[in-house]
Amino acid sequence: METVIGIKFNDFVLIATDMTAAHSIMVMKDDEDKTYNITNQVVMGVTGEAGDVPRFAEYITQNVKLYRMRNGYDLSIPAIATFTRKTVAEHLRSQSPYQVNFMLGGYNPIEKKSHLYFIDYLGAQVDVPYGAHGYGGMMTITVMDRYYKPDANYQEAYDLLKKCILEVQKRCIINMPKFKVKISYAGGVQELPIITKDNIEQNVIVNVKE
Amino acid sequence: MSIMDYNGGALIGMKGKDCVAIATDKRFGIQAQTVSLDFTKVFQINPHTYMGFPGLATDIFTVYEKIMFRKRLYELKENRKISPKALASMVSNLLYENRFSPFFVEPMIVALDEVTLEPYMCDMDLIGCVNKSDNFVVGGTSSSQLYGLCEALWEPDMEEDQLFETISQALVSACNRDAISGWGAKVYIIKKDKIIVRDIKTRMD
């Protein structure tokens, strides 16, 4: 029902999530934030069962913070992905499995490398250049197959995301008028302009603080 | 559709003359939707010991991690590398511990014994029933196609080049008749003095 999209480029990663919070057939709000900043460099877009999403995302965030306090340095991005996957997989065979799907991404300025992981509610983890969860994935992956190039600049990347979202809003029966976009790059994690049904046809200039 | 077919995938192990080979496809999907084209299901356990995990992607990682944990403890305790036969028992044991809520993987071990360099090959079902083989082992969603091809193409005492050709042809042809595996493949040839890893192009449709 919800959509989260992630795209990895050579020196940054984009994560976009829709902003609707639905309950049964009713839309409760249209400014829900389903992205979570795990560290200064890592951002996670989460979809799934309403209560599970914040609970699980905050559990991961706080444990990664705890690791930093104990050790004096952050967990690496692949390690955060492994930890997230392991937590999902451990709960899978318990009485209360978490119904959550992630696109977890980040840029590491030290090794100058970006990472993007696709993790589903079963705990399957895949390293992907681009990916999406939910019904939106069915419309967007093909768009990215056609237009993705790893060396795109910020503006080209944002416009590719707009192409994907345009397709979701055009073809998906579920109403997803707003998408929150976050970028992880050498300067940290930053929010980019929200993509809405109204501004998607316009040319939005992307300003990323260097 | 069975949970074993949820993510798709195909694997083969084959025995040659003083060498063994293991091959995997690269597709990762969620039912019919392809998500990744770079998802190999083969792991190096020791220099001459490889394992392949056909089945549910989450359990591929879970079982692999649990096996590595036990294997490392074993090697620390014994102060030597684990033999493929002991590894098979270890995996079988782990799987049977979960007899009534199993991990949905059917692991295969393809190896040369680290001491004697004797080829060893086996696969097992999801609850750890070991099937030792002297010719080939297959697994994954296209296992019936793979059985047919291996039965037709395999012959005893193949050298490394012929073994590579046979295992590749078997995997590629089987994947072409299976919608949820394929999209590229990777072949590992294990010899006593070297490991040869090759990526194979396959049909991408």
TrEMBL record, chain A:
Gene3D superfamilies: Glutamine Phosphoribosylpyrophosphate, subunit 1, domain 1 (3.60.20.10)
Alphabetically ordered keywords of this record: Cytoplasm, Nucleus, Proteasome
One Pfam family here: Proteasome
Record-linked PROSITE patterns: PROTEASOME_BETA_1, PROTEASOME_BETA_2
A single Gene Ontology CC term: proteasome core complex
Source taxon at top rank: Eukaryota
GO biological process: proteasomal protein catabolic process
UniProt KW DNA repair keyword: no
Localization in the cell: Cytoplasm; Nucleus
Cited function: Non-catalytic component of the 20S core proteasome complex involved in the proteolytic degradation of most intracellular proteins. This complex plays numerous essential roles within the cell by associating with different regulatory particles. Associated with two 19S regulatory particles, forms the 26S proteasome and thus participates in the ATP-dependent degradation of ubiquitinated proteins. Component of the proteasome, a multicatalytic proteinase complex which is characterized by its ability to cleave peptides with Arg, Phe, Tyr, Leu, and Glu adjacent to the leaving group at neutral or slightly basic pH. The proteasome has an ATP-dependent proteolytic activity.
Family as reported in the entry's similarity comment: Belongs to the peptidase T1B family.
Subunit structure: The 26S proteasome consists of a 20S proteasome core and two 19S regulatory subunits. The 20S proteasome core is a barrel-shaped complex made of 28 subunits that are arranged in four stacked rings. The two outer rings are each formed by seven alpha subunits, and the two inner rings are formed by seven beta subunits. The proteolytic activity is exerted by three beta-subunits PSMB5, PSMB6 and PSMB7. Component of the proteasome complex.
The protein, known as: Proteasome subunit beta
Species for this entry: Aphis glycines (Soybean aphid)
TrEMBL record, chain B:
GO cellular component: cytoplasm; nucleus; proteasome core complex, beta-subunit complex
CDD domains: proteasome_beta_type_3
Keywords: Cytoplasm, Nucleus, Proteasome
InterPro entries: Ntn_hydrolases_N (IPR029055), Proteasome_beta_3 (IPR033811), Proteasome_bsu_CS (IPR016050), Proteasome_sua/b (IPR001353), Proteasome_suB-type (IPR023333)
Keyword Cytoplasm set for record: yes
Magnesium keyword on record: no
GO BP, one annotated term: proteasome-mediated ubiquitin-dependent protein catabolic process
Location in or out of the cell: Cytoplasm; Nucleus
PANTHER family listed in its UniProt record: METALLOPROTEASE TLDD, PROTEASOME SUBUNIT BETA TYPE-3
Protein family according to the UniProt entry: Belongs to the peptidase T1B family.
Function: Component of the proteasome, a multicatalytic proteinase complex which is characterized by its ability to cleave peptides with Arg, Phe, Tyr, Leu, and Glu adjacent to the leaving group at neutral or slightly basic pH. The proteasome has an ATP-dependent proteolytic activity.
Subunit structure: Component of the proteasome complex. The 26S proteasome consists of a 20S proteasome core and two 19S regulatory subunits. The 20S proteasome core is composed of 28 subunits that are arranged in four stacked rings, resulting in a barrel-shaped structure. The two end rings are each formed by seven alpha subunits, and the two central rings are each formed by seven beta subunits. The catalytic chamber with the active sites is on the inside of the barrel.
Protein's UniProt name: Proteasome subunit beta
Upper lineage: Eukaryota, Metazoa, Ecdysozoa, Arthropoda, Hexapoda
